[in-house]
Design goal:
Layout (H helix, E strand, L loop, with lengths): L9 H25 L4 H16 L3 E4 L2 E3 L4 H8 L1 H18 L8 H26 L4 H30 L6 H33 L15 E4 L2 E4 L8 H5 L3 H16 L11 H9 L26 H37 L7
Antiparallel strand pairs: 1-2, 3-4
Helix pairs in contact: 1-4, 1-5, 1-11, 2-3, 2-4, 2-9, 2-11, 3-4, 3-5, 3-6, 3-7, 4-5, 4-11, 5-6, 6-7, 7-10, 9-11
Length: 351
C-alpha cells in the first residue's frame, strides 16, 4: 500500500507529513517505557523482518497481490509506540534506497501504514485479550483478528486522504469500495503471517512478547495444604529473566535474510492492492516518477547485475542489513535516553 508521489496533492501531503512527524515524536517518547536492554535489539530485528516479509507479495485475487503491512505484528511483539517506529524505519529505508513509496508521500505512508495499523491493531488486540482466557492461544487469536482489521482500516485512511487531496476525479464511493474490498482479502494474509509469527515467538520466548506481558496465570505455592499466590518476586524465575535473547535474534535475522534473499524471488509479480485499484479507477493518472528512481537499489534490484534472481536477492539482503542496523541504532538510542533520564532524576532523601 505504498502511496507513490502524485496520488495526493502537495498541501495534504505536507499536512500528512506534519501528522506523521508528530506521531513519530510521540512514539519516540513512549518507546522509552517499552524498551529495555533485551527488547531494544529485538525491535531492530522486527523492523528488518517486516522489511523482508514485505518483499513477499502473495496473490489475493485475479491479477492482484498483497503484502504484509506489519503494524499489528510490531505492536504486539515490541509495543505500540515502538511498533510505529519499526514500520516508520522500514518505510524510510524503502523510500530512500529502493524507490518504493513516494518521498513527498512519506507522511501519508507513515500515517497509513505505521500509525493507523498500529493504533487500530493494538486497540483491538488489547480489547480481545482482556475478555479471552489468559492463555497463550488467546494472544495468537487476538493477534490474528487485530491484524485482519488493521489492513482495511489503513485502506479507509488512504481513501480519506484521497477524498481531501486526491489529484484525480474518481467517485469517492468507488475508491472506498475497491480499496476496502481488496484489502480485506489482503488482511487475511496479514493476519495469518502475524499470528504465525507471534505464536512462534511465544512458543520459545513468551517473556519477550510485549502483548503477552501480564497474561500468564500467577504462580501458585502450596502452603499448609492450600494453594496461594506466590510473591511477585517469585513469579518469574531469575534464570528466565536473565536469559539472553541472542538465539532468538540470530534465528530471526537468519529467517529475514532467507526470506529477502531467496524466497522473495518467488513472490507474486501482480500489482498490489493499491496499484491495482489505482490502475483500474484512474487514480494513478497524475502519478510522478520517484525522486530516487536512479538509486542503485531501485525496484529491489542491484544496478549492474543482470541476473534477476541474484540482483533481487542481493538487494533484499542489503535491505535487511541496512534496516536492522538503522532500527537497532534508533532503539538503542531511545533506550539510552531512558537510562540517562533515570540517572539524572533527582533522588529525594529524608533525614
Amino acid at each position: 500500500m505504498h502511496v507513490p508521489d502524485g496520488f495526493i496533492d502537495a498541501p495534504v501531503s505536507a499536512a500528512a507529513g506534519v501528522v506523521a512527524a508528530g506521531a513519530v515524536a510521540v512514539s519516540l517518547r513512549g518507546a522509552r517505557r517499552e524498551l529495555d536492554e533485551r527488547t531494544a535489539p529485538l525491535a531492530g530485528l522486527v523492523a528488518a523482518f517486516i522489511f523482508a516479509v514485505q518483499m513477499l507479495n502473495f496473490p489475493v485475487a485475479a491479477g492482484t497481490s498483497g503484502h504484509l503491512l506489519g503494524g499489528a505484528l510490531a505492536a504486539i511483539l515490541v509495543g505500540p509506540y515502538t511498533g510505529v517506529l519499526c514500520v516508520s524505519v522500514v518505510l524510510l529505508m524503502q523510500g530512500i534506497l529502493f524507490a518504493d513509496g513516494g518521498l513527498t508521500a512519506l507522511g501519508v505512508n507513515i500515517t497509513n501504514m505505521a500509525v493507523v495499523t498500529t493504533v487500530v491493531a493494538y486497540a483491538v488486540f488489547r480489547g480481545l485479550v482482556k475478555v479471552l482466557p489468559k492463555k497463550r492461544r488467546s494472544v495468537t487469536v487476538s493477534a490474528f483478528v487485530a491484524a485482519l482489521l488493521s489492513v482495511p482500516a489503513a485502506a479507509a485512511a488512504f481513501t480519506l486522504f484521497y477524498a481531501i487531496g486526491g489529484t484525480t476525479d474518481v467517485p469517492l464511493g468507488q475508491v472506498l469500495t475497491a480499496m476496502v474490498g481488496v484489502h480485506v482479502l489482503i488482511g487475511i494474509g496479514e493476519a495469518a503471517i502475524t499470528a504465525l509469527t507471534v505464536g512462534a515467538v511465544i512458543a520459545v520466548r513468551p517473556d519477550l512478547v510485549y502483548g503477552a506481558r501480564g497474561l500468564t496465570a500467577p504462580l501458585k505455592l502450596r502452603v499448609n495444604g492450600e494453594l496461594v499466590d506466590a510473591p511477585a518476586t517469585e513469579q518469574v524465575p531469575a534464570r528466565a529473566a536473565a536469559r539472553s535473547p541472542r538465539k532468538l535474534l540470530l534465528a530471526g535475522l537468519g529467517a529475514s535474510l532467507l526470506l529477502a534473499g531467496v524466497v522473495s524471488f518467488y513472490a507474486s509479480a501482480s500489482p498490489d492492492g493499491l496499484e491495482k485499484v489505482a490502475a483500474d479507477k484512474g487514480i494513478d493518472a497524475k502519478a510522478e516518477d520517484h525522486a530516487a528512481a536512479d538509486s542503485p537499489l531501485a525496484d529491489y534490484g542491484v544496478e549492474g547485475i543482470t541476473n534477476g534472481r541474484l540482483s533481487g536477492g542481493l538487494a533484499g539482503v542489503i535491505g535487511v542489513g541496512v534496516t536492522v542496523v538503522a532500527g537497532t541504532g534508533v532503539f538503542w538510542a531511545v533506550r539510552r535516553r531512558r537510562t540517562d533520564d533515570n540517572d539524572s532524576s533527582p533522588v529525594s532523601t529524608s533525614v
